Sequence to fold (475 residues):
Amino acid sequence: MIIEPAPIPEFAVLGHPNEGKSSLVSTLTEDDSVKISSYPGETTECRIFPVTIDGIEIIRFTDTPGFQVPRQTLSWFEKYTGPQENMVQDFIIENRDNPTFKDEVELLSPIGRGAGIIYVANGSRPLRSNDRAEMEILSLIKRPRIGIINNKTDENRFNPEWEQAFASHFDKVIYFNAHLASYRERLFLLEQLGTIDQRLQETLSRVIKAFKDDWSHRNALTSEIILNLIETCLTHTVKKTIRDASRKTSDKKQLIEQWNKDISSFEKDAYQRIRSLFKHNIFNIMLPGHSILSKELFDSETWKVLGLTKVQLATTAATIGGATAAILDIAVAGHSLGLFALLGGVAGAGSALLGANQIARVKVMGKTLGGFKVKVGPHHNVLFMSILLDRALLFYTHVINWAHGKRDTETSMAPGISPDEKSMSYTAHWPQDVRNDFLTFFSALKSKDPEKKETAKKSVLKTLKNILNSLPLGS
Ligand SMILES: Nc1nc2c(ncn2[C@@H]2O[C@H](COP(=O)(O)OP(=O)(O)OP(=O)(O)O)[C@@H](O)[C@H]2O)c(=O)[nH]1
Ligand SMILES: [Mg+2]
Fold:
């Protein structure tokens, strides 16, 4: 006996042109290859977006063109006298070659093969008779259906009338903003889809579980990327043998520049990998104009915002006599210091005092035949670690809050980000046990004992993953 595979549940995203259907599909499926534009009629053909888990497709969302002649279509449906369950297929068969219904035939084709309905409307505009006709059609079709109010602007005066109309045509009504929705809202939407059709509940629960597992896995991988970045940056060295004494100064400068360049590219590579993990493959996320991330790692502004100013650092260095004695004093003095600036003031004040752009110093390693060897790095500085961490966490927060459907609008801020990013040092707010974990990792990086290193890494990996799991998601 041949066992037929169960059909893959499908939801078609329907609505008027330009209401955000494609944006919703893009955000929901985290696919930034979906075409979105401000011109109505961008989508002209249905396109299926499968959700796969471990390589197996378990649900699909289909993007469709907008309704063009809803009132004429409604009138066809109202006159239909055949069996209700054949209504959509009969409409498609009868009007396949009718240019008037070209878009309607296309957009209803997923419904013809059994798809559930997600109807999207821009709740920031008033309801029109065409919208009512579209909703009437969907009511007559009698498939599991959910109405989504996607407010394209802050205008919400019309929301009550949309809610009312939706309530009488759909099994469920929810708000979902295709430009602002993050992971949590996507889960919510999936949960709601599960409630409108009993038969789908089990599948949707699997989808939701897979989404959660996948998210947690991404956070684990992100933690690894960040910790590898820190290890690479803190242990990186560049060396050179200078043979021509007259080039000593310029060669040293060049070496420092090389080291700085290397570190910046390590950071960029790590960010690129984080971005890909969260499936922002085609469009780069837009960072707020004022974001400290648009500054280079070694820009003194970066260090000022996320760490210490030179003056603060000088004070730190001057105040600290014993290893930890002055930490409290500085904290009380109200500086918004990165966590490790305090503790690291001790270990790293010396070189960090020189300022971000001079963090790398050249060490002469010894004379060789016909010249001498010089080396830049490793820069084992706890403040440096704190800056790398803060920037990576800031970048991560932007990435997870950037909806895939958000492309063609100039919004300066990803949601969930404090408007005053300047006060944002994540590390500054970490509790003692978290700090300790990172400090153990920090010292283990210098250790020659691989086991010690491994243990410290494992522990900090877990800590960082927990931190990522608890970072704020937008709205
Ligand atoms: N500000 C804002 N703009 C949105 C939102 N959703 C969609 N848009 C914008 O509305 C326009 C149309 O979005 P699409 O997702 O292409 O709309 P569509 O319904 O697929 O349009 P057609 O394919 O033409 O039927 C684009 O400029 C989007 O950026 C939203 O939630 N907020
Ligand atoms: Mg579209």
About this structure: The first strand starts at residue 10 and ends at 15. The first helix runs from residue 21 to 29. The chain has two domains: 10-178, 217-470.
